[in-house]
Write a structure and sequence with these properties.
With about 90 residues, the chain is mainly α.
């Protein structure tokens, strides 16, 4: 894991610390995690990433990412051909 530094607004961090009753490091980690998920949803919404890559970028399972998309009112970018290809691949596995 890499450590990076960033300049953050001191007052906003204190507000988050007071509201969440958590130390600064935990607050920043949670903000980064929330931002990571938000960015992954946005990339998927704009068709920049696939469902699988979106889940990976968000740091969640595929089903959790699909729930995130639902929570953000984002429809799946799946075409009929994608479903047919998946079914063909599934038949090969079974």
């Amino acid at each position: 894991m890499e450590t990076i530094s960033a300049r953050l607004d001191e007052e906003i961090l204190k507000d988050f610390e007071n509201v969440l009753k958590q130390n600064r490091s935990k607050v920043v980690r949670e903000l980064v995690d929330a931002g990571r998920k938000h960015k992954a949803v946005d990339l998927y919404r704009n068709r920049k990433v696939s469902l699988g890559l979106g889940a990976k970028l968000a740091g969640v399972t595929l089903s959790e990412f699909m729930d995130l998309l639902k929570d953000h009112n984002v429809y799946l970018n799946i075409e009929l051909e994608d479903v047919k290809e998946s079914m063909t691949n599934l038949k090969k596995i079974w």
